[in-house]
Amino acid sequence: MTSRWEEEISLSGDGSAADKVGHIHVRIRELPMADGVHASTGCQLWSASIVLAGELLRRPHLVEGRRVLEVGAGCGLAGIAAACLARECVITDGDEEAVRNLEHNLQVNESLFRRGTDGTSDGRCSQVSARTLRWEEAIRAPWAAEERAEVILASDVIYGHWGDTLAQAMLCMLAPGGLIVLIASEDRRSGVHSFKEVLGEAGFRVAETKLVVPLGGFRLFECRERLPGEPAEQPPIVERTEPEHSGHVAKCPVPHEVGQRPLPAEVWVAPDARPAAAGAGVAAAPGKASEGSVWQVVGGAMNLKGIIVRNGTAGSLSAYTGRLAHGAIIEEVERTAERLRYQKIEGKGPGDGWVSFLSGRGAKLLKLVDAQEAVS
Fold first, then answer.
1. pLDDT digits (tens, 9 = 90+) for 49-65
2. Please, which residues have CB within 8 angstroms of residue 118's CB and are 6 or more apart in sequence?
3. What digits encode the pLDDT tens for the residues 194-239?
4. 4, 163, 192, 226 - which has most CB atoms within 10 Å?
5. Where in 125-225 does DSSP place strands (E)?
């Protein structure tokens, strides 16, 4: 049977009197990837989706009462958060297995966004669905006016060189006057330049925010049609830093089916959402539950240079310390959703540091191995 697990993500609005969502708990099921490649990257929960979900709840005007489309949704966390405020929400991915997992995640969270059981509206979205969507198909057959979304969401979908394809597809699915909200990790945005270029040529204003939060460094892009009189050049990049303890996301494990242990995202705990057991180490810091696991470097073979090692979890914002050779054996110290801190057992390269589970193109860089076999 395919291994799987569920985790609970705790999200909060801005806490103001106008906050229509307050505090919600979203259950997310993930399927294995890093230890078996049974599923695509879309079956894992990535940090960017957690940050985007929190952003939507803190700024509800972005999606409230609108028809929302999420592309490359993966586990669907951002789309589920949007559904708590939107009029209609369509959550999509190009991978069929990811979509089946999306359907499960919608089902277990439907109490967050469905209308009341008596048929009366409780003010939340009544039309939420998951479907397969491939961007090339949207370009070949642009959506009809009545199908187009007023807001399109995406997180960590331009880690490869297909930003232009994504932008073209979005233009074929976005309603006039609509908004595109995209977030990308600092080290997973290879396609940003071509994405912005296509939208700029289409007359869009792309507002870019450099966002630094406890989960790492991200770029937030808010894109809309340029208004009459607005300059043709894009606005300057804005920088925003969230204080260490002012987050709105807490991540806690929940019971899951028998199988491999999860690959958890780094914890970002809201002051008012910290579990009672935090004092005992639950959800209070980046997870160390799998400390001692042994991994082998399976990436870095083609260029013979190995994989990049950095001194922290912020991607390109963290200092480069060298490369870990293909075939090296390392012991896990701790991990986030996207990276692992290690102590080297054997092989060439830095003795410790942080490495990524996946390359910028989505290729697996590390493989979980049996400790005794690895050192025999």
1. 999 999 999 999 999 99
2. none
3. 999 999 999 999 999 999 987 788 999 999 999 999 998 999 999 9
4. 163
5. 127-132, 149-155, 174-185, 204-213, 216-225
